[in-house]
Amino acid sequence: MSQPTCPNDTLLIHSTMALSDETRELIANAIRPHVLRISSRAGATNLTPADADPDAHAAHVLFGQPHPDDILASPKLRLVQISSAGYTRYDSDAFRRALRSRGVPLCTASGVYDDPCAQHALALMLSAARQLPQAFTLQVRRTWDTPAVRRHSVLLTGQTILLVGYGAIARRLAELLKPFGANVLGVRREIRGDENIQMIRSHEIDRVLPTADQVVNMLPASDSTRRYFDAARLERLKPGAVFINIGRGDTVDQDALIRLLNSGRLAGAYLDVASPEPLPAEHPLWTAPNCFITPHTAGGRQDEQRHLAEHLVENVRRLTSGEPLLNRVI
Amino acid sequence: MSQPTCPNDTLLIHSTMALSDETRELIANAIRPHVLRISSRAGATNLTPADADPDAHAAHVLFGQPHPDDILASPKLRLVQISSAGYTRYDSDAFRRALRSRGVPLCTASGVYDDPCAQHALALMLSAARQLPQAFTLQVRRTWDTPAVRRHSVLLTGQTILLVGYGAIARRLAELLKPFGANVLGVRREIRGDENIQMIRSHEIDRVLPTADQVVNMLPASDSTRRYFDAARLERLKPGAVFINIGRGDTVDQDALIRLLNSGRLAGAYLDVASPEPLPAEHPLWTAPNCFITPHTAGGRQDEQRHLAEHLVENVRRLTSGEPLLNRVI
Predict the structure, then answer these.
(1) Could A146 and B116 be called an inter-chain contact, meaning their C-beta atoms sit closer than 8 Å?
(2) A175 at interface of B, judged by CB pairs closer than 8 A
(3) Which end of chain A is more exposed for a tag (fewer CB within 10 A), N or C?
(4) Strand order in A61-64's β-sheet?
(5) CA B283 to centroid of chain Cα atoms
(6) Is B131 left (phi over 0), alpha (psi -120 to 50) or beta?
(7) Are A184 and A198 in contact (CB under 8 A)?
(8) Alpha-helical regions (H) of chain A
(9) Consecutive H or E run containing A63
């Protein structure tokens, strides 16, 4: 039997994120009899951190990027549903303890972003293998130079590919990589045994780094991942390797990466994240040789609001029926 | 039992293609006691058409891009092994009849190029979905504009993808696409029933073109495929669709494609082939809006010579043991 529920309770869902009329209607219809309210100070995007807002304190469910103080000050709160995959703003021991003691769960929306991130990572990997930026640069010069591009074109097939930071994105990326016949290896702090690829422990990475053709960094920001790819580790990359970062900029010693790119030892670096973001115009990463940048767009999807809405609706349904919540992190 | 073979016969394999010392040794060791000879006039690449060369006439096996007259003038010939996937130079009724009447098979090396072509096509498809050229253009301007790129970022998941010209490349591409959960549809003149995706007949394409998010053209050059994508057909593409060509430039009305790109109706065209090749510097395709060009590099692979050598060795083995030949077209 599931936990006892209160079907007659009407929940107030308070969104700190602005929603299109279409999304608002989708949510309102799906959660009836519960009620959706958009904050009068709602932020423009799913990533806009909300300022403190006393209106939030009446909510049973907070959706978006609510201010941590509001979360702690809302007495009726039963669920915090974050509108992003990352949740650094809420990731402190004190905050965790406070929510846990009240039995209030906090869920991310990582399920909305796993698939775009995995497809983006594969786009960057194939782009490197098939020399797309090099070809597009030739196009600007109106130069049809087949041998120049073919000379460096490779397949993912047979390559050794290292997925660093094994979670839902890496799991999906491993699925996408399966038909290629590559040698895909995952790296994780603690191996759980339910991973879909061969795994090694985080501290063993230095042994396999010199064998990897492509290294995909998916590490989140935290004290333990800060500069995980430090100078010594980056220097273990094999000559001609490709380094991809769709995790967080802080996890890499960017100065060391730039030195490595300048030396010509790497075939390329593909970065969707940097430190700081936005990357200032004068930053040397913009023009480092064979460095290719997408501006934190790995999680992007045109249908993002609809998927965030469906994710919220599903977790409200699970909350009221006592089922396990999706992407619960506290 | 296989056909009777003559183990004491020594075959002379004449290559019109220049080979590295490593490749030459690989072949020579693998075919012993048969003998490999490289033409004194050997062409620089696997695609260089050989001029007429009387030295070829003693060969039992011709490898490379032999002159059609030499093929017809070689009395001991038992196999022609072409060093490319395309074989337009040998694709006439008269030539086919001549070879057939002598029982001389002609094989392409398409097996060497299927996988790179399929991976290249997927690289272009993901590049379009994830807005990579747009991001790289922002990088040149040192502009970190996340919303500009995210706004148009999509997934292949749920898209309708049309593979036009179903052969070994499309079969491989369909395998690579499987984990994405896209709606993949193949188009072919005659459906055989052994295809790995849902198929429609070539003449039915106009019905489904307006529903396709991405159209991948893999048609070879021939009288029947010339301007298969004419103006009327291109205009059936839905607004925002992506058109990819890794087949042959002649199969598309390029003027109509440029008009369509100029009108902004398409999200993009990704072309690995053009007419003519090399594309002259003054050609309007180079600068058509949202047109992205790779210079006939879809089949490129760094390990190309080794794979061509292994393909030749395998077909010589099959020839001498009476087994069916790989990629036989005549």
Answers:
(1) no
(2) yes
(3) N
(4) A35-43, A12-17, A61-64, A79-82, A106-107
(5) 23
(6) left
(7) yes
(8) 21-31, 68-72, 93-102, 110-129, 132-140, 146-150, 168-177, 205-208, 231-234, 254-262, 304-321
(9) strand A61-64
CA distance A248 to A298: 11
Beta-carbon contacts of B275 under 8 Å, excluding residues fewer than 6 positions away, are B248, B249, B250, B252, B254
Residue B294 to residue B313: CA distance in whole angstroms: 31
B157 in contact with chain A, both atoms CB, cutoff 8 A = yes
Q: Do B130 and A149 touch (CB under 8 A)?
A: no
Q: How far, in Å, CA of A56 to CA of A71, rounded?
A: 8
**In chain B, whose CA is at the least distance from the CA of A125?**
B123
pLDDT of residue A320: 95
Cα-Cα-Cα-Cα torsion B255, B259, B260, B264, nearest 10 degrees, comes to 150
Does B147 lie at the interface with A, CB-CB under 8 angstroms?
Answer: yes
Other residues' Cβ atoms within 10 Å of the Cβ of residue B122 = 26
How many residues are given for chain A? 330
Contact B29, B48 (CB under 8 A): no
Say yes or no: ipTM exceeds 0.85: yes
CB neighbours of residue A2 within 10 Å? 7
Residues in B touching A154 (Cβ below 8 Å): 301-303
Residues B241-295 have pLDDT tens digits of 999 999 999 999 999 999 999 999 999 999 999 999 999 999 999 999 999 999 9
CA distance A311 to chain B (A): 17
Count Cβ atoms below 10 Å from residue A189 Cβ, excluding itself: 11
Residues A15-24 have a mean pLDDT of 96
Q: What is the pLDDT of residues B8-17, one digit of tens each?
A: 579 999 999 9
Where b means 16+ CB within 10 Å and e means fewer, A132-144 reads bbbbbebbeeeeb
3-class secondary structure, B177: helix
Write the residue in A133, A154, A179 that is nearest to B176 by C-beta.
Answer: A179
Would the pLDDT of B148 be above 70?
yes
Rounded to an integer, what is the distance from CA B310 to the centroid of its chain?
A: 19
Nearest to B292 by CA among A147, A139, A124, A120: A139
Residues in B closer than 8 angstroms to A178, CB to CB, are 179
Half-sphere exposure in the Cβ direction for B64 (13 Å, CA)? 30
- Of residues B45, B129, B142, nearest to A123 (C-beta): B129
Size of the A and B interface in Cβ pairs below 8 Å: 174
> Which B residues in the span 6-45 are in contact with A, Cβ-Cβ below 8 Å?
45
Give the pair of three-digit tokens for residue B51: 């001029």
Chain A, nearest residue to B130 by Cα: A120
- Contact state of B302 with A153 under an 8 Å Cβ cutoff: yes
| Contact with chain B for residue A103, Cβ under 8 A | no
Nearest to A295 among B138, B296, B302 (CB): B138
CB contact under 8 A, B150 and A300: yes
Cα separation of A194 and A175, whole Å?
Answer: 14
B4 pLDDT more than 70: no
A149 touches chain B (CB under 8 A): yes
Contacts of A157 in chain B (CB under 8 A): 115, 119
